[in-house]
Amino acid sequence: MKIEEYTIKSLEHFIELWTKIYSTGGKPDWSHIIPYYDDSIHFRDTVQEVNGIEEFKGVIERLTKRSKELEFKIVNAVMNDRIIFMEWEMNILFRRTKKSTIYGASRILLNENGKIIDQRDYYDLWGDIFDNIPLLNKLYRKFMKKVFG
After folding, report:
1. In the beta sheet, which residues pair with residue 101?
2. DSSP 8-state assignment for residue 125
3. Exposure string over 88-123, b if 16+ CB within 10 A, otherwise e
4. What is the pLDDT of residue 148?
């Protein structure tokens, strides 16, 4: 396999690229990592599912636009062959709310050329946001316990 310029070479390389996204003082910059995504990227999270690099760029543009401030911390990460799994914390400040921490994990699959071909993000968006809103936090957790046990 020929190593291309935009190939994820190791877990350390991936973490370096990912960390650089959020080292811009509150507004993320994805421009340096986009070339490491395959043109036919499949992305899915709690809110949406998209296919293709242009749709994926739309996802990250909307996230950046929606938030006044966005910080990201990788808590743990492992790589096994072409699969990267990372546990993370995202601090996000939406317009008209206080800062919320969202706890999640991502499974990232690299294709045979070392580009990101599939990304699945797992998190409890509403639970983590509602935990920071008085009254709603207790109502939401009570509802979840009653319905889901």
Report:
1. 91
2. H
3. bebbbeeeeeeebebebebebbbeeebbbbbbebeb
4. 61
0.90 exceeded by pTM: no
Instruction: Give me the domains of the chain, ranges plus CATH numbers.
Output: 11-148 (3.10.450.50)
Question: DSSP string spanning 40-98?
Answer: EEEEE-SS-EEESHHHHHHHHHHHHHHEEEEEEEEEEEEEETTEEEEEEEEEEEETTS-
For 53, 65, 67, 122, 134, the CA distances from 60, given in Å and listed in that order, are: 11, 9, 11, 16, 29
By the 10 Å C-beta count (0-12 exposed, 13-18 middle, 19+ buried), 14 is classed as buried
Give me 129's structure tokens: 């946001």
Q: Which residues contact 44 (CB under 8 A, 6 or more apart)?
A: 50, 119, 120, 121
Which of 61, 46, 62 is CA-nearest to residue 123? Answer: 46
pLDDT tens digit sequence for 39-92: 999 999 988 999 999 999 999 998 888 777 888 899 999 999 999 999 999 888
Q: Which residues pair with 93 in a beta bridge?
A: 69
CA-closest candidate to residue 119, choices 29, 49, 26, 32: 49
Residue 83: CB atoms within 10 A of its CB come to: 12
